[in-house]
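Exercise 7. Given the encoded structure of a 398-residue chain, write a plausible sequence.
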């Protein structure tokens, strides 16, 4: 056991947070999966438990493998993977909106041989944030003109977002917001950011007008996410309102929690094991469950900031913030949807909700953060070996 722990590098607190969230996820996912098991399956809920276990196991294997890679290699990897991401997104959007079972497939591709679905936009988000961190660290100490950055920086951002937007507005909005935040932190001129934000809003308006004028030209979920936003703003009754109402009933029931596995609303709430898992947790575990999650994600945010500030390079700092902040941001959005502060988005609760790609990409992002943290630990250990005062090193970590 001692040998196993010696192989684990990086921030131990982040390892602990990820492990606690993963362990906590099993009971609510197992409980909420009963709806899927009896409505669309054979009634065997244990298979969903095993599936979730396999997803998390693979996720932690990815996290371990990625955290062993020196983070400087991610610079080159991001440049290589950007074209791959664009091809995958293009394949995804060209395959149409429904499969033979009538299920939307414009956000997933099917992996041959293993017969598993993969959400390309989630992978694209991680790769793009690494790419943006690389470019911003490269120009951090330089004076650049807006024209110089259009193709190398905003070109890949634009193409990734435009390929995700038709099928998944919420992911597009999150990526765009995170890129803007990272660019601001990275010292990109505010006047240029204002131009990008304005151009982005203009492009969105133009896209919506084209989608309205030529609805058959968008064979995907454009109508779905547009109607969600319109109905949320107008307060109209829709299928999404049914989901929100059931979620709010579950949360209200949490004043007197029903206990593990005893949720009632899981039988009526679609996507209860993924998009609305937070409501089921509140219903079964009460405020304790909700506060526990808030503490975990707040603690994760704190450790992300700490690791970024202790990174040995500008790229390391931006890399940690670029892949780490979206995890916490997505968690807050998922919770906000459950209490109707946001329209239904389809965003999962990181490391809690069921689903393969979201778990794997979250674990990949955490692995990248741990890689940066591991480098800092290596530097400190070398300083101690060279004769520095260990008490000085200890004081820096407190």
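Solution.
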């Amino acid at each position: 056991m001692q040998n196993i722990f010696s192989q684990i590098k990086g921030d131990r607190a982040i390892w602990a947070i990820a492990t606690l969230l993963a362990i906590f996820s099993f009971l609510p996912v197992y409980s909420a999966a009963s709806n899927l098991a009896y409505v669309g399956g054979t009634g065997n809920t244990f298979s969903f438990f095993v599936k979730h276990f396999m997803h998390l196991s693979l996720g932690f294997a990815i996290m371990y493998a990625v955290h062993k890679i020196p983070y400087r290699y991610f610079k080159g990897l991001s440049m290589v993977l950007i074209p791959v991401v664009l091809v995958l997104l293009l394949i995804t959007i060209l395959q149409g909106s429904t499969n033979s079972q009538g299920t939307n497939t414009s956000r997933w591709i099917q992996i041959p041989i293993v017969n598993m679905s993969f959400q390309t936009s989630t992978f694209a988000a991680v790769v793009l944030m690494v790419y943006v961190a690389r470019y911003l660290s490269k120009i951090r100490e330089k004076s650049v003109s807006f024209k110089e950055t259009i193709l190398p920086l905003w070109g890949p951002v634009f193409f990734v977002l435009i390929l995700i937007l038709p099928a998944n507005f919420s992911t597009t909005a999150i990526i765009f917001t995170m890129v803007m935040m990272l660019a601001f932190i990275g010292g990109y001129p505010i006047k240029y950011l204002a131009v990008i934000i304005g151009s982005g809003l203009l492009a969105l308006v133009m896209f919506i007008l084209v989608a309205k004028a030529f609805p058959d030209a968008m064979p995907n979920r454009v109508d779905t996410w547009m109607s969600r936003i319109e109905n949320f703003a107008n307060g109209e009754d829709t299928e999404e309102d049914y989901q929100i109402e059931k979620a709010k009933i579950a949360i209200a029931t949490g004043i007197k929690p029903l206990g593990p596995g005893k949720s009632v609303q899981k039988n009526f709430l679609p996507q209860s094991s993924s998009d609305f898992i937070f409501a089921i947790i509140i219903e079964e575990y009460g405020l304790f469950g909700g506060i526990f999650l808030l503490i975990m994600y707040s603690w994760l945010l704190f450790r992300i900031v700490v690791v970024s500030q202790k990174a040995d390079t500008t790229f390391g700092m931006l890399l940690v913030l670029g892949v780490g902040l979206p995890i916490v941001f997505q968690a807050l959005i998922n919770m906000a949807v459950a209490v109707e502060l946001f329209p239904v988005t389809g965003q999962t609760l990181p490391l809690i909700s069921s689903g393969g790609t979201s778990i794997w990409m979250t674990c990949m992002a955490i692995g990248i953060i741990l890689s940066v943290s591991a480098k800092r630990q290596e530097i400190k250990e070398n300083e101690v070996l060279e004769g520095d005062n260990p008490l000085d090193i200890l004081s820096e970590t407190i």
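Remark. Confidence is low (pLDDT under 50) at residues 99-104. Students should compare their own answers with the one above.
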